[in-house]
Amino acid sequence: MSILLAAGLGNPGREYAATRHNLGWTVIDALARKHGLVWRTEPAFEAELTRWEIAPGSACWLAKPLTFMNDSGRAVAALGRFYKLPPAATVAVHDDLSFDIGRVKVSVGGSAGGHNGVDSLIGHLGEGFARYRLGVGPKEPPEMDLKDFVLGDFTAEQLAIIQQKLDHYVDGLELLLASGADPAMNLLNRKEST
Q: Regarding beta strands 47-55 and 40-42, do their DSSP bridges make them parallel or antiparallel, or are they unpaired?
């Protein structure tokens, strides 16, 4: 199924901009910037929204929920209902602690893995949406509280990796949105494992 809605998960506010939890926003912003798209705030959906014309006759909504991470599903589900989209037409772009910074994986379904934003999407949308997972691990130091880690800023070294990988992140997301989850999984997940 075609992806018709891509939601970058994060928290609104300048104090969260450089945090690990906002990597989804960083990547979806980079995609919008690459194509000269302009975000507009849509209070009815509690989100910022823009539309990317992928090809003639093919377009995708890009969204940044403004509900804060733990309630992302409310905004994404409102958009899905309005545009009559099944969960399978949606992708969540989000940070993932379960693999190293710089890596990306595409998956469909599964548990939230302790990610409150993904948990909120499962609660509001149900199962079946795609996930564009951006590695932010490992958690260092290991004993650090999970919330403090994901709401912490990237280190200078980590930021350098993010900047180096940003084009790769955007290219992978474009592939996912243009071709669907299966081709993106086949190419990106295999590439990432080598």
A: antiparallel
46: phi > 0 → left, psi -120 to 50 → alpha, else beta; which? left
- Which range marks the domain in which residue 16 is found? 5-193
Tokens for 189, please give them: 């997940």
CATH number at residue 48: 3.40.50.1470
pTM score, two decimals? 0.96
Helix then strand then coil, in percent of the chain rounded to 5, is: 45, 25, 30
Q: Indicate if 21 belongs to the active site.
A: yes
Contact, 6 vs 91, CB < 8 A? Answer: yes
Q: How many domains does the chain have?
A: 1
pLDDT 10s digits, 81-105:
999 999 999 999 999 999 999 999 9
Q: Catalytic: which of 21, 94, 115, 124?
A: 21
